[in-house]
Design brief:
single chain; about 150 residues; alpha+beta; three-stranded antiparallel β-sheet; 3 helices; about 25% helix; globular
């Protein structure tokens, strides 16, 4: 008899936040499984029954101190379909403005920093394997492609 263990996950939302000059917001966050800081797009876990767009909007403001007026769903991805039920919903956020309250980091996020970086530089970081985070690679490359045809 074959036994399969499945990690149940509520899913999450990811935000590719793009300024008019095609700079994007990246987060630098410590990730315990690798015991290092990695660059990634802002993202967070869905609360029970939460709409993914609402989660994306909440996480953008909490992690970056920005809000967006325009939102477009880019795609959804299975992060680790061999053992985990996690689905991430990736959104493009534009028409950004600073939130009056600034960043609202949660417990455990105190060491998280953010940086605004040109899209071309971020794509170079992906190509040079400085960014290995799958949600970030998917969001940036798909977002770049869609922005070119918009």
């Amino acid at each position: 008899i074959s036994v399969r263990e499945v990690a149940e996950h509520s899913g999450g939302a990811v935000v590719l936040a793009v300024f008019p000059d095609r700079q994007i917001i990246l987060i630098n966050q410590h990730r315990y499984p690798f015991d290092k800081f990695i660059w990634e797009l802002p993202a967070g876990k869905l609360n029970e029954g939460e709409d993914p767009l609402h989660c994306a909007q909440r996480e953008l403001e909490e992690e970056t101190g920005y809000n967006a007026r325009q939102w477009k769903k880019l795609t959804s991805i299975y992060t680790s379909p061999g053992f985990c039920s996690e689905i991430l919903h990736i959104f493009l956020a534009t028409e950004l403005s600073e939130s009056p309250g600034g960043r609202k980091l949660e417990e455990g996020e105190e060491t998280m920093t953010m940086k605004i970086i040109p899209m071309t530089e971020v794509i170079g970081m992906i190509e040079n394997q400085e960014i290995l985070d799958s949600k970030t690679i998917c969001g940036v490359l798909l977002g770049d492609r869609i922005l070119r045809i918009m």
